[in-house]
Design brief:
heterodimer; A: alpha+beta; SH3 type barrels; 2 domains; two-stranded antiparallel ribbon; 5 helices; 28% strand; B: mainly alpha; 14 helices
Chain lengths: 161, 301
């Protein structure tokens, strides 16, 4: 009776230890994203996370990941803004590096980049990027989108009875 | 015997813990030395080996490709100058984007109206989306516009533009890029990489503007646009209404814009109807949306 309980005790302790130690780690793969208070784009922004910043997954919900940042903040990021970094220890915030090693980050500034675009512009002076830069400035704030959705009875506002 | 088993189990547990620790230490070490210019050799090899297809194009690279494709489109069509309309189209676009499976890209989604009577809607990689004045005039309500923008967002979501790049070009590019972590390219390498970049842009622009995407991508974008529109709260029949309008439209020849680059409206209507009938919930049109659409496009009439 004693031996099996010793074995199962070891196994329980082992799995508890592993589950505590292992956390899913992600790295921001886009220029920047917001750490949000709720899993919604128009929820309050708690911080801006830059490309390459590492976060640890706490839980997931319909395309969103609740994370802890290297600064110890907790909030939600959309899953399409981050990329799995691989296995890492949860130990402490100090183990999270902002200069992460994920390939997306290693590739930052490499390949088709600003320098290549500069060379392309020099070769094709008839193609102007001025309007593209202007287009990039067209931004509607999440709170305005929320109002737009609400007035049009769209998204969660369309499902309200 | 039982003691032996316990020892084996303990050894296994220790091995597992050490393995996870090793993984972590590898990441830590890259973090310590980890500026882009100082990536450890094994990591560089991994990057080189792993990058082989369109899915391996980084978000940042996709952004630079998208910028250039957008610049090509804007060298062919001028932008329509109407801030209120631009803001309205961006609001409808972002409403749809929020309900897509890829709501964030490297620099986000941006929508622009093109000042042309040609009927057209185009999407460049990374979220640069264009809709022509001619197409807007043929929409009767926000549902139709929402469905068309959802179709374009679906092309971005599924990276259909990047899939137009010939694989041999990507292999060339990855070979040039993948060997070293370079902060600045030398003239020779820059010239070669720009050659590949130009060819890749030619592949995408050729599909977008001249030949159109493969039919399977158009059907996929239709299917996804129905899902995204319904999730947003738009009546997905807006897509069918638009396709019906286009089927009956004989004002433009089949050699221009949308008519040239898309499969026949009849075929798409049939598929869209089947797709819509399989939805568990179909939102209805709302008069508030039609009213604001009318107001936004009144200057076009």
């Amino acid at each position: 009776m004693k031996k099996p309980s010793l074995l199962s005790g070891i196994l329980i302790v082992f799995f508890l230890l592993v589950s505590i130690l292992i956390a899913k780690s992600f790295v921001v793969k886009i220029s920047s994203t917001h750490l949000r208070a709720e899993p919604q784009f128009y929820a309050q922004s708690l911080a801006v996370l830059k490309a390459g910043e590492s976060v640890e997954q706490l839980e997931t919900k319909e395309g969103w990941i609740k994370v802890k940042t290297s600064r110890g903040l907790t909030g939600w990021v959309h899953s399409c803004a981050v990329k799995p970094k691989g296995v890492a220890l949860l130990a402490s915030a100090s183990s999270l590096k902002t200069d992460a090693s994920a390939d997306e980050v290693a590739l930052a500034g490499k390949g088709f980049n600003k320098q290549v675009e500069g060379e392309y512009k020099a070769r094709n002076p008839n193609i102007s990027f001025a309007m593209v830069d202007k287009m990039l400035q067209l931004k509607i704030s999440p709170s305005s989108i929320k109002t737009f959705l609400a007035r049009g009875k769209l998204g969660e506002f369309g499902r309200e009875k | 015997m039982n003691n032996k088993k316990t020892l084996v189990l303990l050894a296994f547990c220790l091995f597992c813990v050490l393995f996870f620790l090793k993984c972590s230490v590898m990441e830590e070490s890259a973090g310590i030395f980890g500026k882009v210019s100082k990536i450890v050799a094994s990591e560089k090899d991994t990057i080189k080996a792993v990058r082989s297809g369109f899915g391996d194009i980084s978000e940042e690279e996709e952004y630079y490709i998208g910028r250039a494709v957008a610049a090509i489109i804007l060298s062919m069509y001028p932008a329509y100058q109407n801030d209120d309309l631009t803001r309205y189209v961006n609001s409808v676009g972002m409403a749809v984007v929020y309900h897509s499976d890829r709501p964030e890209t490297f620099a986000g989604y941006h929508f622009l109206v093109l000042d042309t009577e040609e009927v057209n809607a185009l999407s460049a990689p990374s979220g640069f989306i264009f809709i022509s004045k001619g197409l807007l005039k043929r929409c009767r309500n926000e549902e139709m516009l929402g469905c068309i923008l959802a179709h374009e967002v679906a092309h971005v979501q599924e990276k259909h533009g990047l899939q137009a790049i010939k694989n041999a070009r990507l292999v060339d590019a990855f070979t040039l890029i993948g060997e070293k972590a370079i902060e600045k390219y030398g003239p020779e390498k820059l010239a070669k990489l720009t050659d590949v970049f130009e060819d890749a842009l030619g592949d995408i622009a050729g599909k977008l503007i001249e030949r159109g995407y493969d039919r399977k991508y158009e059907y996929e974008a239709d299917r996804l646009s129905i899902e995204i529109a319904a999730r947003t709260g738009y009546d997905p029949k807006g897509l069918i209404d638009f396709l019906e309008t286009m089927r009956q439209d004989s004002s433009q020849g089949e050699e221009k814009g949308w008519f040239k680059t898309h499969p026949s409206a009849g075929d798409r209507i049939e598929r869209a109807q089947k797709e819509i009938s399989s939805l568990s919930f179909i939102p209805e049109k709302a008069s508030a949306r039609t009213a604001r659409y009318e107001k936004a496009v009144q200057r076009l009439r």
